[in-house]
What does this fold into?
Amino acid sequence: MAEKKISEKDSKALERGQKDVKFWAESIADTVMTREKFHFTEAKVPKLSNWVVKSSSSLSGILHIGRLSDLVRSEAVYNALKERGFPVEFIYVTEDMDPLRKIPKGIPESFEKYIGTAVSDIPDPFGCHESYDKHHLEDFLNVVGKFLSTMPKVYSMREEYKKGSFKDDILQIINSSAKVREILNQFKENKLDESWTPWKPICENCGKLQTTEVTKIEGSKVEYICKDYEFETRTAKGCGFKGVSDVSKSNGKLAWKSEWAMQWRRWHVCAEGAGKEYESKNSAFWLNAEICERVLDFPMPEPVFYEHLMIDGVKMSASLGNIVYPKDWLECSRSEALRLLYLKRLMKTRSFSWNEVPLLELELDRLAVSVSEKKGDEKDQVNNERLLHFVSLKGRKILPLTVDYSLALMLAQLFPTVEEAFEKLREMKHLSGNESKEELALVKERLAFAKAFAETHASQEQRISFAESILPDSVLITPDLKPLLKAISEKVNSAESAEGLQSFVFGLAKEKGIQPQKLFTVLYSLTIARPQGPKFGSLAFALGREKVAKRLLEFSK
Ligand SMILES: [Zn+2]
Ligand SMILES: [Zn+2]
It folds into this structure.
């Protein structure tokens, strides 16, 4: 696995960071490296030479950008450990043994018959992949690398079960059913009885997983009957078959509350991400942690609890039609902007709306500026430096750009091609001519992002065009403003830069004792027929100076 090179500056910051301010992923890394004892017992944490940071996704749902949060956050902990010289690998486990629980939008109703079957055992409804889960997984895995510096090693639970990788662990857990049951019963009102086992066989007759009910256990042989199982909205139909499952052949699955623990020991997991719902002590995370330590004699991983991403304040779902795919993001914005959204804080509620892309991009620009200009006190500086360090992708610089996303968005709407928009930036003097090749390439990338964004996701308020006609009485122009409009009209024609025009208007308002906002509202109303807009200086250049000057002159009379 490739190692992240640390520059001298970074390593100094790291040193300082270790002393006082730490990025959250660094704090978790330090906890992992300094822990000596188990959480539930007094046992000593073993010194291993191959630890793992694990991320995973359930494949019964859609792989939207929310699924990247676990990967991005886990990778940050992996990077922090790696930078500290800890022997660690990064893995991604696909939970493809999860059963289908409902028929998502776009999947034929005939798939009803697969409710209760592991998603990796269901055919691809679109016919192009070997199974249901692979259809979504392939696209996802193809873009995941664009959001990460290190591509994790990918494991499939279905494959691991098939290969018999867990055989011994499964037998150990089943032989310790009583102990596992005791741990699980701590928080259960309806206690599990002695006939309970964490093993869930796959029905030999119909291939379903959720429908089998264990009736008897003898050594590694488990007797079961295949019965109906009620999910929230759908029923998994059992076939009535009575069979015997041989645990050592692994045709089945451990219950989630013991399977997770088994994964931790199997891969030597030292840290793993989990949604904040797992924080409570009776959650599957902590129950597995106890099973891991008390039954499997392996230390639980350090949790990375985080808040889930919402879209416009609600959960992403196919039926709501608000799914954001990673590839949609990459058309409109830098992957680092999404990384910033995820890495900035772990536990603050995060909601995303498409119209916030320009703001997220601006936040990333500002972070880059704060770091390059060393803004704030020493604590702020270290904080910003560490955040930017973790947000950055290997081999890609985040430069402070002078052309912000909102400006790019305006130009992208007013000019048919990126090249024309780019030329306009020169005319406006937003580009000085001293930019590096790298910077210019990033400006062009931003214009292309903004163009894609304008075409697909821009809100009504973000759309801009020249108002071809303005009714004479529709804009309130007090007599004191008229001479100003005339002066601005002339300046629009003669200004050398967008910035120059902008400060002229500002200075003029001040000089005449008029509230700048009042004047700008009139200027926007006369050009784009709305009370607000982007900086007027840039706007006038972008709309076309001649027609803007003409319009202002017309209303100055
Ligand atoms: Zn397919
Ligand atoms: Zn069956």
Notes: The pocket of zinc ion (ligand 2) is lined by residues 203, 205-206, 208, 211, 226, 238-239, 241 (CB under 6 Å).
